[in-house]
Each structure stands twice: as structure tokens, then as C-alpha cells.
Amino acid sequence: MSGVVRTLSRCLLPAEASRDPGSSKEGSREKDAAQEREARRRSREIDAMLARERRAVRRLVKILLLGAGESGKSTFLKQMRIINGQEFDKKSLLDFRDTIYENILKGMRVLVDARDKLGIGWQSCENEKQGMLVMSWEGRVGGSGVESSEFQLYVMALNALWTDTGIQEAYARRSEFQLVSR
């Protein structure tokens, strides 16, 4: 009966399993040894990577900057980056440009509004139209600044307004209102 079972098992089992039991154990031992070597190699790589990261983290300096809005926390960090010689990448520079454009438009809006509230007249009625154009600009809430193409629509109006004596007088009295930038 055992001979029949052995014959049937050879027919039904895959070729590797039907071989001599001693040789399959040896093959699996070799396979296990190869997997063990690979696992050890990967473990050494991971340990080396963790050691490098640990050294890098030790060199990091973490700073918590607290302060009210518009107190200069971001400006401080940007200045530290410049002082330590880390240049800004192209994307960062474009983001700064868009933020500057937004600050210019917001600042001029504040000046036009303050000129009106302080009762200061326009130098010319053409500048009043330019002021209305700038006041019609609506910044996006939570936006990432003003793109160049949008800003170019306001450049002539901004130049005309900045040379207006009414806007210059409002700017001279800026201690009477809040002229904010980010």
C-alpha cells in the first residue's frame, strides 16, 4: 500500500516535491540562507540610513517664533536664510514677486481709502478714476499673491496715483491709519 501512495504522490505533486526528500531540504536551506543574507544586507542599509538621519537631526536647530500677525516672523526667517547664504529657488522667487504685487495693490487701496477718510482731495479728476480702478481690485482670500499679468493691468493707475499729491499727503499721515503688508 505504501508503494501505491508513493507512486500516486509522485504523479500528483510538482516535480520539485517529488524529488528525493534529502535534496529538497538542502535546496530550501540554500534558499533560506540566501534570503537571510539579503535580509541582513537590507538591515545594514537601514541601520546606516538611520545613523545618517540621526546625525543630521542633531545638527538641526529648531526655533519657535511667536508674535502677533504682521510682526515680522516670516521676514526674520527669510533674512536668516539670506544671511546664512541659502539662496531661494526659482519658485520661491516667483512667489515673493506675486506677494509683492499683492502688497502694492493692497497698500494703494489703503492709501486711496485713507485719503478719502482724511478728507484729502485729488490732484486731478483723472486720478480719481485711477483710484476707482484700484479700489475695484479684489484680492483672493487665502490666495498666493497676484500674477504678473493681473498686476500689469494696474501699473499705469498705480504710477499715476503715487505721483498724486493727495496720495502723497495721505502717505505722509500714515501714522493715522494702518498700512499693512505681509
From TrEMBL:
One of its GO terms (cellular component) is brush border membrane. PROSITE patterns: G_ALPHA. Residues 14-42 are annotated as: Disordered. GO terms for biological process: adenylate cyclase-modulating G protein-coupled receptor signaling pathway; Rho protein signal transduction. Keywords: GTP-binding, Magnesium, Metal-binding, Nucleotide-binding, Transducer. GO terms for molecular function: D5 dopamine receptor binding; G-protein beta/gamma-subunit complex binding; GTP binding; GTPase activity; metal ion binding. GTP binds at E70, S71, G72, K73, S74, T75. Mg(2+) binds at S74. Pfam families: G-alpha. Residues 17-42 have a biased composition (Basic and acidic residues). Belongs to the G-alpha family. G(12) subfamily. PANTHER family: GTP-BINDING PROTEIN ALPHA SUBUNIT (PTHR10218), GUANINE NUCLEOTIDE-BINDING PROTEIN SUBUNIT ALPHA-12 (PTHR10218:SF130). This is Guanine nucleotide-binding protein subunit alpha-12-like.
